[in-house]
Design goal:
The chain is 81% helix and 4% strand. The chain has six helices and three strands. Helix 4 (96-110) packs across helix 6 (170-237) and helix 5 (119-163) runs antiparallel to helix 6 (170-237). It has a three-stranded antiparallel beta sheet with strand order 1-2-3. The chain has one domain. The chain has helices spanning 2-21, 24-31, 36-71, 96-110, 119-163, 170-237; strands at 78-81, 84-87, 90-91. With 238 residues, it is mainly α. The longest helix is centred in the C-terminal third of the chain and has 68 residues, at 170-237. The protein is elongated.
Length: 238
C-alpha cells in the first residue's frame, strides 16, 4: 500500500515538475485573473498531504495486523487485561485491529457456548475505515466544481465588454478583443486546473479505498482462521 502510494506521488510530482519546467504552471497562474486556479492548486496540495497521512495510518494498521498474525502462531490464550488485548503473555499495542479483537472477545464472553458471528463487527470496521476516506471523494468533486465556477466567471469576464460596446472604432474593437481573450483564458485555465486536480485526487483516494478493502479482507480471514477457533476452544475448555 505505502509503496504504491509513493510511486503514484512520485509520478504526480514528476508531472508537475514537467509542467513547471515548460512554463505552463506559471502561465496558468499569471493568466488567471480570478485566482481560482491558485485556490484549486493550493487545496489540492493540502488534500494530498492529508491523503498521505491517511496512507501512513493505513500502512501502520496493516503492519500491526501482520505482527499480530505472527503472535497467533503457537498461541493458546486470548484475553483482556486492563482493557488491553493479550495473546498468551504478549500485550498488543492499541490500534484498529486491537480494538476489533477487544470487541470480539467481549462478544464471545456474552455468547458462551454459541457460534461466534463477527459479521456485524466486520461491517462496522469497514464503515469506520470508509468514513475516514469519504471526505476525499467529496473534495475531489469540490475541486471539479471550483473549475466549473472559474469557467462561468471567465465567460462573464469575456462577455461583459461586449455589452459595454458603444461604437465600432478599430482601437475600441482591439481593446475589446484583448479583454475577451483574458476572460477566455480564465475560463480555460480554471477548467483544466479543476479537471486535472479532481481526477488525480479521485485516483489517489481510489488507491486508498482498495488498500482498505484488502485490509478488511485480511482481518476477516485472520479472525476466521486464527481467532474464532481459539475463542471457541477456550469456551469449550471452560
Amino acid at each position: 500500500m505505502l509503496l504504491r502510494a509513493l510511486i503514484l506521488t512520485s509520478l504526480i510530482l514528476f508531472g508537475f515538475f514537467l509542467i513547471t519546467e515548460r512554463g505552463l504552471l506559471s502561465l496558468t497562474l499569471e493568466s488567471d485573473r480570478s485566482n481560482i486556479s491558485t485556490i484549486i492548486l493550493t487545496l489540492y496540495a493540502l488534500l494530498s498531504l492529508h491523503w498521505l497521512y491517511l496512507v501512513l495510518q493505513l500502512s501502520a494498521d496493516q503492519k500491526a495486523l501482520d505482527e499480530t498474525r505472527s503472535y497467533f502462531e503457537g498461541a493458546r490464550f486470548l484475553s483482556l487485561r486492563e482493557d488491553r488485548v493479550c495473546i498468551n503473555d504478549k500485550v498488543l499495542e492499541p490500534g484498529i485491529f486491537s480494538d476489533y479483537l477487544k470487541d470480539l472477545i467481549k462478544k464471545s464472553e456474552n455468547t458462551s457456548g454459541h457460534e461466534i458471528d463477527h459479521g456485524i463487527l466486520l461491517e462496522a470496521l469497514g464503515e469506520r475505515l470508509m468514513a475516514k476516506y469519504a471526505f476525499g471523494h467529496y473534495a475531489s468533486d469540490m475541486l471539479l466544481k471550483f473549475g466549473l465556477l472559474g469557467t462561468i466567471i471567465g465567460f462573464i469576464m469575456m462577455l461583459k465588454p461586449v455589452g459595454e460596446l458603444t461604437d465600432f472604432d478599430p482601437n475600441v474593437l482591439q481593446q475589446l478583443l484583448g479583454q475577451m481573450s483574458g476572460g477566455m483564458a480564465v475560463a480555460l485555465f480554471t477548467t483544466i486546473s479543476g479537471l486535472v486536480t479532481s481526477t488525480l485526487l479521485a485516483l489517489q483516494y481510489q488507491l486508498i479505498d482498495a488498500g482498505a478493502i484488502r485490509f478488511i479482507d485480511r482481518v476477516a480471514v485472520s479472525v476466521d482462521v486464527m481467532v474464532i477457533p481459539m475463542l471457541t476452544s477456550e469456551d469449550q475448555s471452560s
